[in-house]
Amino acid sequence: MLSSHTLILNEYAKKYLEQSKNRLAPRTFQDYSILINQRILVNYGYVYLGKLELRQISPQIIKEWHRAIQENYTEHNAA
User: How far apart are CA 1 and CA 15, in angstroms?
Assistant: First the structure.
């Protein structure tokens, strides 16, 4: 079992994927890996969840992260 006491999200996500590989269907594991690596652990401006300790991730942080993703998407599609 993963302890969330002082883990940062990057570490937690990597350990989660390692521990889940054999219990998830191959396609599910692939989808989770893509989501984690291309959506969650990506630096969207000033909001980078990957460097935060799990206990630091609050609803407000998630809202800011989501807003940053939307802004990033809008900027890339406006060009």
Answer: 10
Query: Percentage of residues in the chain with pLDDT exceeding 70?
Result: 89
SS (H, E, C) the chain: CCCCCCCEHHHHHHHHHHHHCCCCCHHHHHHHHHHHHHHHCCCECCECHHHCEHHHCCHHHHHHHHHHHHHHHHHHHHC
Q: Which residues contact 53 (CB under 8 A, 6 or more apart)?
A: 6, 7, 8, 9
Closest to 36 in 3D by CA, of 50, 21, 55 = 50
Sequence letter at residue 63: K
Q: Write out pLDDT tens, residues 8-53.
A: 999 999 999 999 999 999 999 999 999 998 888 888 777 788 899 9
